[in-house]
TrEMBL record:
Signal sequence residues: 1-19
Record-annotated TonB-dependent receptor plug domain positions: 119-221
PROSITE patterns: TONB_DEPENDENT_REC_3
Chain ranges of the TonB-dependent receptor-like beta-barrel domain: 351-769
Name of this protein: TonB-dependent receptor
Compartments where found: Cell outer membrane
Keyword Coiled coil attributed: no
One cellular component term from this protein's GO annotations in UniProt: cell outer membrane
Keywords: Cell outer membrane, Ion transport, Iron, Iron transport, Membrane, Receptor, Signal, TonB box, Transmembrane, Transmembrane beta strand, Transport
Classification via PANTHER family: FERRICHROME IRON RECEPTOR-RELATED, TONB-DEPENDENT OUTER MEMBRANE RECEPTOR
Superkingdom of origin: Bacteria
Annotated membrane topology: Multi-pass membrane protein
Length: 804
């Protein structure tokens, strides 16, 4: 390590010795300097702020070709290629157009380095901070239809959500779409549901991304990047309210503590809402009459983010990011459902619970990112720690469930913890050969909340099992997993226009789960009784994830690509006891998705029009499904295949000054291939097989359509009116594999209208103005019932903000 450090210091000295400078001015179309414009050199540690005349400079720049990203509030972002030669100061002038007359150029990190989105051979939807604000994107569910072929289901709370891209979804405890927040992978579904506050951009990579992102990127990746502080102090406050008791307050502050050396950022958010489902105890046998008529589905969220960045030298940075969130509710929507689709569609605002439950979740997400920027490479280290605790009580699903491990009914479970480390080196120069290579490892300790609980026995059930009244059946499951991965990607420019990329990743995981079977343990009079000792099972898994692509630059602002990617979801352990004679496999293997894609991206008409189009084919195999594997015995096993094929199109244009039109379209034709669901009737003992081959994939809309228009009208030099309208159409789909529970096509109409005056804003917004009622969740398998959950009716409110 000492030799490595000395080598890096010597390299740094040699680079500085031969370094040059970049100077320039940022101006508007009238030739006026733009004060406080932000200028960054991509894939470097160098960011600066222009002075009042728009002047800026970078010193100690080694000879080479660089890309500058230039942005300022109210102006369209621009990328500028700069060539620095020896013994010469490079001078440039950059003219920025107002954002209401030109589309901004987009930087993404899909290949683990900063690049122009046009040059990346992947289908990507990138939402800027402005678009996140304009579309009122407050969470993952707001990405539906905004991102082509993206869909979202939720079991009452954001921490129990299922994301799907191009039909690839989860049938086991691991997600199918990988979610990253500031370089940290949320390995577990329970880690999702972070509040969106002060977001710089959101990148949604559509299609498998296993080579660079690893496990659970079968359908794609949602990459969330929060705003970072610069040399200019800034801040914001925001307050809003709406129907359903909504209140939302957020604030943030960013400042340099030591200019060019030490930076601090703080963000906080508090949000509360009452819920929209009215409880009806008629016919439920509820003993507590006070719960009749109560609202269900409310929640409070408290979120905070601390950001600290230190630049000890021009080539080295350390960034500490600490995120914390607490969610709690005394009228929880966690795991609740409506008895059937027929009842839910007839009375979408009603829920039928004998008790109203409570829940609480605490998350801590810490990361330390170290980067060393060499002359032609960047070395990155990402060290992360996640801690998640969840507890709930009196969840009626049906029957009453509460979290439990070893102390109290309804307790916060022991923390799910993840330690992870990524080491990565990548090229950062515009050369023929570009590369990324690295290592990733993680340790995970899990206490999954739906398998660490107590089930409250009724008096009749207690008598049947020979237990005292008031007893509980205990379910326990703790897991310890670790994984290692090595990955690499090489891109080579065969000609000035043609580039080839190859990549490969190898993942190895070892899992261990300790659990009990049904009836193996009980809570009697507050004391745990173990009738059978817990079982421990282990499994080992490995996977290869290759990538191949060719891209051709038609011109500076157009690119055509063809790509193959593989994604995988880790194997797992059936955490239930099987008899030794059953021959049932205790473990199940990984599943895979292979994506073949052809795409085209372009900006033209002086960056007033942007188009991205793609066609794809995904083959999904070794699907992990819950099946009857022995008499009266269910387990997850690898059965079945599926196929997804479709088209995607995204268009943005500014036809006249002040008017922006956005649209996206996703078409997805899917089917299951050659497998059957095996089930048993517990009353008769008869086994049945339901062929699902040829059926459409569950919870996969036939299409998604998004259309939006926003017009900005200057009233005077300070005051501006903004009006926005959106239409989101989600095609019909079946919630279940059997294709018997159908959600018809539905359309959401949203609007946002308001005024801005300098740095102040007042907006009125409405979501789902036509009050469409549709499924927020439907079971992917209706063999065990048709319980569903309806989405919220129309919502509306206002937001008041100030920036400084």
């Amino acid at each position: 390590m000492k030799k490595f450090t000395i080598t890096l210091l010597l390299l740094s000295s040699l680079v500085i010795l031969h370094a040059q400078s970049i100077t320039g001015k940022i101006k508007d179309v009238n030739g006026n300097g733009i004060d406080a414009a932000t200028i960054s050199i991509l894939n470097s540690n160098k960011t600066t702020i222009a002075d009042a005349q728009g002047a800026f400079s970078f010193k100690n720049i080694a000879p080479g070709v660089y890309q500058l990203s230039v942005s300022s509030i109210g102006y369209a972002a621009q990328l500028k290629e700069v060539k620095v030669t020896s013994n010469q100061t490079t001078e440039i002038a950059i003219i920025l157009n107002e954002q209401n007359q030109q589309l901004g150029e987009v930087v993404v990190t899909a290949n683990k380095r900063e690049e122009d989105i046009i040059r990346v051979a992947t289908s990507i939807t990138s939402l800027s901070a402005k678009k996140i604000e304009d579309t009122r994107t407050w969470g993952l569910k707001d990405l539906t239809a905004l991102v082509p072929n993206y869909s979202y289901q939720e079991l009452g709370v954001a921490s129990q959500q299922l994301q799907s891209i191009r039909g690839i979804q989860a049938f086991s405890e691991n997600p199918a779409v990988s979610t990253y927040i500031d370089d940290v992978n949320n390995l577990d579904i329970l880690a999702n549901g972070f509040a969106f506050a002060d977001i710089e951009r959101i990148e949604v990579l559509r299609g498998p991304q296993g080579t660079l992102f690893g496990r659970n990127a079968m359908g794609g990746v949602v990459n969330i990047i929060t705003k970072k502080p610069t040399n200019k102090a800034s801040g914001f406050v925001e307050a809003g309210a709406g129907n359903q008791g909504l209140q939302r307050y957020s604030a943030g502050f960013k400042t340099p503590i030591i200019k060019d050396k030490l930076f601090l950022g703080l963000t906080g958010l508090f949000q509360t809402r009452d819920g929209y489902l009215k409880n009806d105890t008629t016919g439920t046998g509820a003993s507590d009459g006070t719960v009749n008529g109560k609202l269900v589905g409310g929640e409070k969220n408290l979120y905070g983010n601390l950001f600290l960045k230190w630049l000890p030298s021009n080539q080295f940075s350390l960034t500490l990011n600490v995120k914390v969130q607490s969610d709690w509710s005394n009228n929880t929507g966690f795991m609740i459902s409506q008895p059937s689709d027929a009842i839910a569609f007839a009375k979408p605002d009603n829920v039928y619970l004998r008790r109203i439950g409570e829940h609480k979740r605490n998350i801590i997400n810490n990361s330390l990112v170290a980067k060393f920027y060499g002359n032609s490479f960047t070395f990155t280290s990402i060290t992360a720690y996640q801690n998640i605790r969840l507890g709930y009580s009196d969840v009626d699903f049906p029957g009453f469930y509460s979290t439990f491990y070893d102390k109290n009914v309804g307790e916060l479970l022991p923390p799910q913890e993840v330690f992870s480390q990524e080491l990565r080196i990548s090229s950062n120069a515009a050369k023929k050969l570009q590369y990324t290579a690295g290592f990733y490892g993680f340790l995970q300790k899990g206490f999954e909340p739906t398998t660490n609980l107590v089930y409250e026995l009724s008096d009749g059930e207690s008598a049947f099992y020979g237990l005292p009244s008031g007893s509980y059946i205990i379910y326990r499951n703790r897991s310890e997993n670790y994984g290692l991965a090595g990955f690499g990607e090489l891109g080579y420019s065969l000609t000035e226009k043609l580039k080839a990329t190859v990549g490969l990743r190898y993942d190895y995981e070892k899992r261990q789960s300790t659990f009990n079977g049904f009836g193996d343990a009980a809570l009697i009079g507050g004391q745990i009784t173990d009738f059978v000792k817990d079982t421990t099972a282990k499994g080992n898994y490995s996977a290869l994830s290759p990538k191949l692509s060719l891209s051709y630059s038609v011109n500076d602002r157009s690119n055509v690509f063809i790509t193959y990617n593989r994604g995988f979801r880790s194997g797992g352990i059936n955490a239930q006891r099987f008899s030794s004679a059953s021959g049932v496999q205790q473990t199940f293997d990984p599943e895979y998705s292979d994506n073949f894609e052809f795409g085209y991206k372009t900006h033209f008409a002086d960056n007033k029009v942007s188009i991205s189009a793609s066609a794809f084919l995904i083959e999904w195999k070794d699907m992990q499904l819950y099946n009857l594997v022995a008499p009266f015995t269910y387990a997850r096993e690898n059965v079945g295949k599926a196929q997804s094929m479709g088209l995607e199109l995204e268009i943005s244009t500014i036809p006249v000054k002040g008017l922006q039109l956005d649209g996206s379209f996703g078409f997805d034709k899917t089917k299951y291939k050659d497998f059957a669901l095996t089930r048993v009737n517990y009353g008769t003992g008869v086994e049945t097989k339901t062929q699902v081959g040829g059926n459409s994939l569950s919870n996969t809309p036939s299409h998604t359509i998004y259309l939006a228009a926003q017009y900005e009208l200057p009233i005077n030099n300070k005051l501006k009116a903004i009006a926005r309208g959106e239409i989101r159409n989600i095609g019909n789909y079946y919630a279940d594999m059997q294709n018997s529970l159908k959600q018809p096509s539905y359309t959401l109409v949203n609007t946002r209208i308001g005024l801005t005056c300098n740095n102040y804003g007042l907006f009125f917004w409405g979501q789902n103005l036509t009050n469409e009622r549709y499924l927020l969740y439907g079971p992917s398998d209706t063999s065990f019932g048709r319980t569903v959950l309806m989405a919220s009716p129309g919502t509306y409110g206002f937001t008041l903000s100030a920036k400084f």
